[in-house]
Design goal:
globular, TMEM86B-like, 8 helices, Putative membrane protein YhhN, about 0% strand, mainly alpha, hydrolase activity
Length: about 210
């Protein structure tokens, strides 16, 4: 897959932009942050298209890049637009995974992992419920979408896809706490921002590569 020079170049460029965003984070003008942040995932979409991974995965990555672009702006309107874009991305990932499920009876570890993810998503919603007044319906819809995607990843039995889904859930959990529970001037935001970014980008990287090999 990566023996193709173009594929290797796309991957290296994506990693480079991800590292650059990891350095600049939320500092600097949006005109710099937006293309760097969204570009890192858009290049993964291009890599997936080159590898003929599947239109659903490519579309999921493209919608994720759109969500990244929206979330550069830390206001309500762009936040809701970004939430909607990521909701669509999770539905597309889930569609790809559920359509490939062989309907085999889940193993014990899959039951345990599924229950754990369910509890994490419910805990995430409970933790932000009071702070998410006016946004509870979108938050619940998003929680259902990511739960469905994560459960499908567990049932896939693919290690890369599973780890990618877990990282996605972790990133979203920290992001929701930061958005609705952690004050803007809290020192905790020094740590939440890099955690959110690297778990998120790691999730997208693993998912794109794992789907290509599936």
């Amino acid at each position: 897959m990566l023996s193709d020079p173009l594929a290797a170049g796309l991957l290296l460029a994506s990693l480079g932009l991800a590292a650059l965003y990891g350095i600049i984070g939320r500092r600097g003008p949006w005109q710099v942050r937006l293309p760097v942040k969204a570009g890192s995932v858009l290049l993964l979409a291009a890599l997936s298209a080159l590898n003929e991974t599947g239109s659903l995965v490519v579309a999921a990555l493209a919608f994720s890049a759109l969500g990244d672009a929206a979330l550069v702006f830390r206001t309500r309107g762009p936040f809701l637009a970004g939430l909607a874009a990521f909701l669509v991305a999770h539905l597309l990932y889930g569609w790809e995974l559920w359509s490939g499920w062989d309907r085999a009876l889940p193993q014990v570890w899959q039951w345990g992992a599924g229950l754990t993810v369910l509890l994490v998503v419910l805990g995430m919603l409970a933790a932000v419920w009071n702070g998410a007044r006016g946004m509870r319906v979108p938050a619940v819809a998003y929680g259902i979408a990511i739960l469905s995607m994560a459960l499908a990843a567990i049932l896939s039995g693919n290690g890369g896809i599973l780890v990618g889904a877990v990282l996605f859930v972790a990133s979203d959990a920290v992001l929701s706490l930061e958005t609705f529970r952690i004050p803007e001037d809290s020192y905790l935001r020094r740590y939440t921002a890099p955690i959110i970014w690297w778990t998120y980008y790691g999730a997208q990287l693993l998912l794109s590569l794992a789907f290509a090999r599936a």
